[in-house]
Write a structure and sequence with these properties.
With 85 residues, the protein is an all-alpha fold. It has a domain of 51 residues. Helix content is 75%, strand content 0%. The N terminus is likely disordered.
């Protein structure tokens, strides 16, 4: 997933749906491969690369960290819910 774009209107709803679909897909793959939901090394890698992309767009590191923290927390909730079904 690239840095989230904010284009307004229905596209924001599509961005939200994409996050949910990605979390669902991640839950299935992790379950099939017997992986834990939270993988700290992967999380740090994602933050590192997204901050790099953000810096290239002159966005603040803290801003990106906060956004991705929220996305990550929601993704974990979705994955946990799916893996318990």
């Amino acid at each position: 997933m690239a840095i989230l774009k904010s284009s307004g209107g229905d596209e924001n709803e599509n961005d939200y749906e994409q996050v949910v679909l990605s979390a669902n897909d991640a839950a299935v793959l992790k379950d099939q491969n017997k992986l834990t939901i939270f993988q700290i090394e992967r999380w740090f890698e994602i933050l590192k690369t997204r901050k790099k992309y953000a810096n290239n767009l002159n966005l603040d590191d803290e801003f990106i960290t906060e956004i991705f923290d929220l996305i990550h927390k929601y993704s974990i909730l979705i994955q946990t819910k799916n893996m318990r079904q």
